[in-house]
Amino acid sequence: MNVSRPAVHPVEAPPLEEAAVHVPRVRMKDVQGMPGTKGGFFLRLSQFSFAIISISVMANTSDIRSATAFSYLDLAVGLQSLWILSLAFVDIYALLVKRILRNYKAIRLFTICDGITSTLAFAAACASAGITVPIGNDLNRCAFNHCTRFETATAMAFISWFAMSTSFLMNFWSLASQ
């Protein structure tokens, strides 16, 4: 029996035009809060202001050395404020030259360092809160210690951490979208 079989004949693809080869990539919309935007700069500014308030309140307390957690809070928030200040300068530069930071290596560095410094600040704020509550409630030693100053510094560190974690998530999102 002579049955016809389907045959596949290769067809050549038409040559690509120059415009089709160099199609620009579609980038993610610029979200305020990412590095190099006005929202990112104001986020850094709020982080820095709360961190500085926390440091200055702790620095004006005479018995900061009464617990290691308070010294750790001072050190962690100080490191965080230096990192925030350096990134604020980068944001100012990006705003002045009207560029948004899209460099993969720079955003990766921002994301990693934001994650590390925010984790350190959160751990220090939690440790300080863990010491402040027993001093005030259990030991009733607020007459000898500056409980309200410790609580204020801890609260400012938590607010600074919250703004820092928002910045970390924006950087992480920008890193994942590239």
Characterization of this structure:
67% of the residues lie in helices and 0% in strands. The chain is mainly alpha-helical and 178 residues long. It has one domain. It is elongated.
Task: Show the helix and strand layout.
Layout: H1 18-21, H2 38-59, H3 68-96, H4 104-138, H5 147-176
Helix pairs in contact: 2-3, 2-5, 3-4, 4-5
List keywords for this structure.
about 180 residues; mainly alpha
The quaternary structure here is single chain
Q: Indicate the mean pLDDT.
A: 81
**Count of domains:** 1
Distance between the termini: 60 Å
- Give the overall silhouette: elongated
- Which percent range fits the helix content? 55-70%
Number of H/I helices? 5
Structural class: mainly alpha
The arrangement of helices and strands along the chain is: HHHHH
Strand content: under 5%
Count of extended strands: 0
Residue runs with pLDDT of under 50 for 5 or more positions:
none
The whole-angstrom Rg is 26 Å
Strand count, sense and barrel status of the largest sheet are: none
